[in-house]
Amino acid sequence: MSDQPIIRQLKEGDAFQGFLLAQEAAYKVSAKGSEYLELKLADASGDLKAFLWDVRAVEGDMDAIRADVFLRVKGSVTSYNGRMQLKLDKARFAADVEVGDFSAFFPVSARPVPEMLAEMDGILLSVRDPWISRLLTALFLEDRDLRAAFALAPAAKSMHHAYLGGLLEHTLSILGMAERACGHYGALNRDLVVAGVFLHDVGKTAELSYQRSIGYTDAGNLVGHIALEAEWISRAVGNIPGFPEELRLQILHIVLSHHGRLEFGSPVLPKTPEALLVHYLDDLDGKLEVMFRAVKEEGGGGSWSPYNRALERMIYRVRWPKV
Amino acid sequence: MSDQPIIRQLKEGDAFQGFLLAQEAAYKVSAKGSEYLELKLADASGDLKAFLWDVRAVEGDMDAIRADVFLRVKGSVTSYNGRMQLKLDKARFAADVEVGDFSAFFPVSARPVPEMLAEMDGILLSVRDPWISRLLTALFLEDRDLRAAFALAPAAKSMHHAYLGGLLEHTLSILGMAERACGHYGALNRDLVVAGVFLHDVGKTAELSYQRSIGYTDAGNLVGHIALEAEWISRAVGNIPGFPEELRLQILHIVLSHHGRLEFGSPVLPKTPEALLVHYLDDLDGKLEVMFRAVKEEGGGGSWSPYNRALERMIYRVRWPKV
Amino acid sequence: MSDQPIIRQLKEGDAFQGFLLAQEAAYKVSAKGSEYLELKLADASGDLKAFLWDVRAVEGDMDAIRADVFLRVKGSVTSYNGRMQLKLDKARFAADVEVGDFSAFFPVSARPVPEMLAEMDGILLSVRDPWISRLLTALFLEDRDLRAAFALAPAAKSMHHAYLGGLLEHTLSILGMAERACGHYGALNRDLVVAGVFLHDVGKTAELSYQRSIGYTDAGNLVGHIALEAEWISRAVGNIPGFPEELRLQILHIVLSHHGRLEFGSPVLPKTPEALLVHYLDDLDGKLEVMFRAVKEEGGGGSWSPYNRALERMIYRVRWPKV
Amino acid sequence: MSDQPIIRQLKEGDAFQGFLLAQEAAYKVSAKGSEYLELKLADASGDLKAFLWDVRAVEGDMDAIRADVFLRVKGSVTSYNGRMQLKLDKARFAADVEVGDFSAFFPVSARPVPEMLAEMDGILLSVRDPWISRLLTALFLEDRDLRAAFALAPAAKSMHHAYLGGLLEHTLSILGMAERACGHYGALNRDLVVAGVFLHDVGKTAELSYQRSIGYTDAGNLVGHIALEAEWISRAVGNIPGFPEELRLQILHIVLSHHGRLEFGSPVLPKTPEALLVHYLDDLDGKLEVMFRAVKEEGGGGSWSPYNRALERMIYRVRWPKV
Amino acid sequence: MSDQPIIRQLKEGDAFQGFLLAQEAAYKVSAKGSEYLELKLADASGDLKAFLWDVRAVEGDMDAIRADVFLRVKGSVTSYNGRMQLKLDKARFAADVEVGDFSAFFPVSARPVPEMLAEMDGILLSVRDPWISRLLTALFLEDRDLRAAFALAPAAKSMHHAYLGGLLEHTLSILGMAERACGHYGALNRDLVVAGVFLHDVGKTAELSYQRSIGYTDAGNLVGHIALEAEWISRAVGNIPGFPEELRLQILHIVLSHHGRLEFGSPVLPKTPEALLVHYLDDLDGKLEVMFRAVKEEGGGGSWSPYNRALERMIYRVRWPKV
Amino acid sequence: MSDQPIIRQLKEGDAFQGFLLAQEAAYKVSAKGSEYLELKLADASGDLKAFLWDVRAVEGDMDAIRADVFLRVKGSVTSYNGRMQLKLDKARFAADVEVGDFSAFFPVSARPVPEMLAEMDGILLSVRDPWISRLLTALFLEDRDLRAAFALAPAAKSMHHAYLGGLLEHTLSILGMAERACGHYGALNRDLVVAGVFLHDVGKTAELSYQRSIGYTDAGNLVGHIALEAEWISRAVGNIPGFPEELRLQILHIVLSHHGRLEFGSPVLPKTPEALLVHYLDDLDGKLEVMFRAVKEEGGGGSWSPYNRALERMIYRVRWPKV
Fold first, then answer.
1. Between chains, do B314 and D221 touch, taking CB under 8 Å as contact?
2. ipTM entry
3. Whole-number pLDDT of residue B191
4. Count of CB contacts below 8 A, D vs E?
5. Other beta carbons less than 10 A from residue F70's beta carbon
6. Within 10 A of F297 (CB to CB), how many other CB atoms are there?
7. H helix or E strand, kind and range, residue F24
8. What is the pLDDT of residues C272-289, one digit of tens each?
9. Which residues in A lie closer than 8 A to residue E263 (C-beta atoms)?
10. C268 and D231 in contact by Cβ < 8 A?
């Protein structure tokens, strides 16, 4: 989509031609009895409603137009009541290969992936415990598929960091805090904490599907990311001759217990200081991300965000200024 | 302990000489200031309090006498207030090798283990799905260590079937009900159910320690039986080339969800009919075992059992007679 | 409605004339300001939206057209966006007597009622305990009103078996499993279990209203089916001279405790093996019915059912094939 | 026990001869190996520990001496560390007929029963609704057994008003508040409220056993007082020809819902103003009785009562004085 | 709005000209693509939908027309499907000063405020404890701002007494019951109870905003009414030299604990009889108000109210008539 | 107690003469009928059982010997079963003034108080926001009583940091982590966080009594530390002319919400990033202290701590060694 305009910059009266992702698509019938096509179209910068009032203007297979496919559309921007819409003259299904670079169509992390990968590699190199180093190296440096998926996946379906690259961004943020916490609480085993943070959500790469919209895979629904990553850890450990069973148990324990409570899906409670720390820092990082986003976003009433379902409360947006 | 009397048959005035398991052992001081040894001694038939009023009669290392070791004792049965006690003349630590057959000292299943193994093998042979058959065969027929442990382990620390052989007895009982349920609900996949039942608690063999008294292992406390068996299944599946991923997920799902609710330690809820069935039959079988045992046991007030902590209620023992 | 077409078989362009049940009915105003009638019309085979665009075409009393009455309508089948609708030319209220056989208009059990009644009678005859036999006979064979209601009622408002005949179908299914369970757990009193299953939901005949749509009666909302059936049992027992009080208590206990937990509306917990069994088999049967229906039904995304409110989860529809 | 001293007035050095209720009784063995009898003996004024140091001084059947029987004892009052004890010279089992007036041995309401019955009858006569009047008359005036039991029973096993006459005292106290509440909230139906209060705990007469110590009957454990009283109401209503079904449902609803929440054993929630009021006044009266008793009783630390299990908190005993 | 018609008395065909409060306001686009204004307009007697089909008829700033402002409108009453609507010819924003008496536009207590204030003052004068009297006098008689706010505020955002004057009406109603309760339970300190009732919700005057629609203030969301009133009490006490600390704690305790449970926002549980009473009477009064209102209001199905979110149940509206 | 031996260093056979704190004291009667005094005596290094077998050896007022007073004792160390005891020859009550330096008798923070106060003052000086600086200065530098209490108080009765100086140590530890967190999450207002941490538990100085043993004050039980500190903040703010109301609300919000959930005693949920952070760091610090202590302490079985009531789990003590 090299030269098409991006949604956030459209103004009333602009013409538009290009590819957009159909997040929603439905054929409806107007009160007058005529059929029309109602769409929600998106690129990475935003989304807007679009209407094709005469379905005969659909080119090609009408049924191919549905949620989570790309469309090629042509139309112009109109504005009703302050909200912009696209009034379409034409629309057709577009195959993925036509579209090229997908990343232009999905919300992504504000941090560039290469920068984040470099930071991750630096942390991996800083691990001094040889067994932990070999385990993390096997998974995050040598397993190219996992590394690629880890750099792409979101951290959650909707709760927090729900965008491409979100898993890596979230993991790095916890690692930063974990480093600081290990400086403060000197009795913590820093390399064990680092292992726990790296591994605690790695199963999200298989729990979630995130090629078009973020959802759960069958394995995600049937097994869940916690059991998936426990399996991967044990398999990787099995490929490292002599890996200490004690260490394997300690790492598995951090991963299995990181949701902190049974009713949140952890089959065991955190029973070591490292497991407790990883649980708290993970939980804190996710909730702070939600709060900071709520402070910045529009909507809601004045100084309060709309009711936030992830936190089950409204967020207070007024910031007491720093001196 | 070939020829020593068993505890349940002792009468007041009997002499006793032989080996007994010390379930509790403590040196105490009487009101007069003299030290004595207070014990709870057991064989498989029961237990009774024992006292050695003069600790100078302890032979050998006094500190070796502690909970979960065997003792060689000599004394006589006395009775106070209707309860029998052993008044000891002598006591000494006894090494395991002296004792010989341990099974005489622990509560065991009422069903002979060979009979149960034969029944198990019959069910294994009845599985027609080739992949399921190979998976179960690898674990329960070919893995001699697991097979041996599976025949020895209790089903729980204290909640139900808390005796040697209890895991196998519990598993077979559920299998019996599962067979019947599959006859009734024709849409169920019987072989999948059989796999789920066989595997749902197999991790107890490593979660629990049960050489002397039943407790939790480190792996049991840190990882838990559900994650342990998920790991074993994936490893065994990895050794069967071509094993279908769909089937692996379905089996893992039954195992991971079999506690039925997140707050009971299952990281996912049962989402297939087979998973739902295994959860219900497992739960029912454990609770019925508790109830039938409570109906039979002594103690409590008349028609009611003592308060049962596993079920959080008293059990009504009056049985309406069958016609 | 002997010769009118059934909804499931209608095709676009078909003319339709006949009786249909109005599940929803509302006069609305179009964007152009004209009033129209929007309906949801149903027979036992399904339902579809219907519109009468000119309310002057309503014959007779406009206010008589409301939810849960029959209408006589005439129109033709149109199709918008793949969904069929009825475009009506005429509509009028129809009295019940015009309609004749109601069963053509409501969802009913897939099993014929006479077949189910015969199965029920066979089970009643198999009870050997004379007191239980007399109690069940009095209620299910001799009380013609209750027998008729028991054959007609649904098992629930919406959770499971929510169709005419559902209560009988659900009861028979549990009885089948109960018979098997009593074969497996030999210590259970089979006749007591049979009594418990027969009686556990009989109060639904008065808790629910199910002449048109399924809802709660005043007695259902104020008293609930559990208290209703406890009352009926005591009254029936009062008419059997010499009925043992012990047996009355045991039966009442099964009925009162069959929801298994206080927070689900049982005033006591199951404290006998028979009460525990009835609770589990009832719960299992209802949930399996929901699951099997979800596996079969349309809607939702691919291998997963839509979110199911009764089970608070999505159901996995992929079935591992039997060999 | 006309002329024997009462426990609360005993002083060190007093001789004692007479009947006492054995609340606890156990044969024990001293550190010196001799058997003795340890008792907790009570009359209505209090209880104290008693010891018979030589069991050969027990007259008659030693095994007859157990909890909840009367004993005839002779001994003298000694004092250890500020607490009085009975040092017994003799003790023997005493049949109930020897003892005569039981009420001297159990905690009873501070209000005389005849006075309470007179107050109750006055309230019964004030009911103007003819149907409610006939129902209450049938149960509380004409059913002599129920009337007698209602005057004798405690209100609970241990939570509140746990003494003979406590049920009547509790009921009258709620009635007093209910009268006031109906004066305040004019829309309430006072006679319906009165019926609800009278009936809400009447089943306690059969749920609890209270001849010697307070416990649960089999019916209490299996069925519970709520279902018992629902049954009694329906039976009594069945004996009043023409009793309105609407009124029967409203009364049953108050009784069934009076615990206020499902998890507290009510199968339905209060859905009428009268049911809501009865729930609140019942709950309030029970908890206030607990608080006022805690304020008055000894024990605990200074201004705070010991931890109260019924209320799950300590009670503050400091009273701000009235002006 | 001296002479304009009130909404509840409008009939089809009536012309309307005057001020109304816009509870909802949105510019929308019709199926034909033209923009219109959809409103919900209210005065104290009720509300109704209104449409201005041609937005060019809006006078002045279109963006000034939004929720919670007054409008000056002109139009006529039409009726669609039994519901009245306003078809507007003109609409414009109206400044508050134009409108005059706000009370004509909001739901208010059925009791006149002066009458309620007089009743309140009478109760204040009846307090005999000098310290309590001075505290309440300082807050409710001498603090004119608080007194004015106390007379204006609603008791809650939506749960109960959600109208202007509701806080005062609710407080007086509890005071009436409290007076009666202190007559019944003689050990209660009446003046302490009166203080607790007066103060328990006084913080709602600052927790809620209620100039236009009822909502939460920032302080309400960040601090809550319980902490606000604790602060006010301590400040007022600080201005009364010699005020006893014991009394301050007892009053604070009633206020802090009056929600009765931690999960309802009370940081401490009621631990004195007075605190327990205030909690129960407050809770009862709020819930009874909800019930009596539900009994009177329209909507829902026949004898049952619609599902009530505050009480999480439907209310039974059938009243058994008083004799 | 300048030159008396400390408990931890006593050996069997040692003579002892000096002051000790009586944590428990009871006169008991031996099986032989003679009265003796049983004590638990402590200094800051530990505690041990003590017995005075002949109460006639008590000097002075026997009743003055009770829990939480000092005693002057003389005796010798004996050993039974590996546990040391004091066999006393003499004991008498000792007035506080005799004892001198109390700190020798209570568990205290491992960090010297002056060092901690210096660290605290450094942090106070680092606050740049002038309003926050003045508030904290007023409370923690200028209010000498509060400063002294803040340096002495424990952080909790038993959950964590339950020793003298524990509150200050806990506060400083959180401040250390908070500083690091503000470095990591740049959007946080560091001075606001510092204020929140300083103030979040300051009310513990009045909630707890900690002169002898740690308990709750009346104000602690009736009002709680959260409401106490809210009051103090508002009072201190009231003494700073011009203090911004917005800032007051933000600080109060952090303090009121720092328990994180209503059921843990916070009347509001954290709704700002700073409030969320303070809650998490406070919770984490307390739980880590518990864990690290459990790792170090004796008792329990091997690699596991005893069941920890504060965390509701056992703690795994095996530490994976740092490289």
1. yes
2. 0.86
3. 98
4. 105
5. 21
6. 12
7. strand F15-29
8. 999 999 999 999 999 999
9. none
10. no
